[in-house]
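C-alpha cells in:
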C-alpha cells in the first residue's frame, strides 16, 4: 500500500479543492447544458482558452459526447501550449540559483502527468455512460490548466521584481499542510479499496509520481502554493474514489 506520511489539522487548503471543483463544475455543467451559478461566475472571467472552450461546448454541432470531448481536448492542447510558453518565459527570468529546482519540478510534473493518464484510464474503464466520458476529458484537462496558471503566476511575480518565496516549513509544522495530507491519505485509501485488484498498481505508480512532483516542487514555491497543489490532489482522489465502478 502506498501512503504519504500521515498528518493532522486545519482548513485553508480547501481553497484549492473549491477552485478545482468550481472549474470542473463549469466545464461539465456547460457540456451537459447546466450552468451552476458559482461555476458560471468562475468561468465568466476566464482566460481566452477557457472562453473558447465554453463557446465550443455551446455549439449545436458539438453537442454530441464526441463533440463535447473534442472541445475539452482542444482546450487541453491550448493549455499544454500555454505550459510550454510560460515555461520558456520562466527560464529566461529565473536567477541561476533558482533554475535547478524549477527544472526538477517541471520534469517531475511531466512524469506525473504520464502516470496520471494511465490512472484515469484505469478508473474510467470501470464506468459506463457519457457523463463519465466527459468527466475523464475534464480530469485530463484540469491539471494542465493548473500547471500553466502556476507557471504564469511565477513569471508575473518575477517580472514584478518579487522576492524569492520563503522556505516552507516541514509539513508537520504547518497545520494546514498536515490536514491536507491527512485527507489525501484518506481518499487514497478509499480509492485503493474500490479499484479492481489488477489496477491497484496503476494507482500506486501514479501516486508515487505525484509525490515525486510535490517533493521536487516544494523548494521552488511557498507554503500557500504547496497547499494549492496538495488540495488539488485531494480533490482529484476524492473525485476518482466517487467515480470508480459507477454505471
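Residues out:
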Amino acid at each position: 500500500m502506498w501512503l504519504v506520511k500521515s498528518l493532522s489539522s486545519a482548513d485553508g487548503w480547501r481553497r484549492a479543492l473549491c477552485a478545482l471543483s468550481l472549474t470542473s463544475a463549469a466545464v461539465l455543467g456547460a457540456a451537459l447544458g447546466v450552468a451552476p451559478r458559482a461555476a458560471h461566475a468562475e468561468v465568466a472571467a476566464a482566460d481566452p482558452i477557457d472562453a473558447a472552450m465554453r463557446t465550443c461546448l455551446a455549439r449545436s454541432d458539438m453537442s454530441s459526447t464526441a463533440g463535447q470531448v473534442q472541445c475539452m481536448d482542444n482546450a487541453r492542447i491550448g493549455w499544454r501550449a500555454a505550459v510550454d510558453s510560460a515555461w520558456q518565459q520562466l527560464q529566461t527570468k529565473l536567477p541561476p540559483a533558482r533554475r535547478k529546482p524549477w527544472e526538477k519540478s517541471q520534469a517531475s510534473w511531466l512524469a506525473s502527468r504520464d502516470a496520471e493518464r494511465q490512472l484515469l484510464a484505469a478508473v474510467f474503464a470501470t464506468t459506463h455512460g457519457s457523463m463519465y466520458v466527459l468527466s475523464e476529458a475534464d480530469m485530463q484537462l484540469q491539471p494542465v490548466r493548473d500547471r500553466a496558471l502556476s507557471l504564469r503566476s511565477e513569471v508575473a511575480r518575477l517580472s514584478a521584481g518579487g522576492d524569492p518565496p520563503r522556505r516552507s516549513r516541514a509539513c508537520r509544522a504547518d497545520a494546514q499542510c498536515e490536514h491536507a495530507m491527512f485527507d489525501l491519505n484518506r481518499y487514497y485509501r478509499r480509492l485503493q479499496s474500490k479499484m479492481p485488484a489488477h489496477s491497484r498498481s496503476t494507482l500506486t505508480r501514479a501516486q508515487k509520481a505525484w509525490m515525486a512532483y510535490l517533493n521536487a516542487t516544494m523548494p521552488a514555491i511557498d507554503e500557500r502554493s504547496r497547499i494549492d497543489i496538495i488540495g488539488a490532489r485531494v480533490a482529484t482522489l476524492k473525485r476518482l474514489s466517487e467515480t470508480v465502478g459507477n454505471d
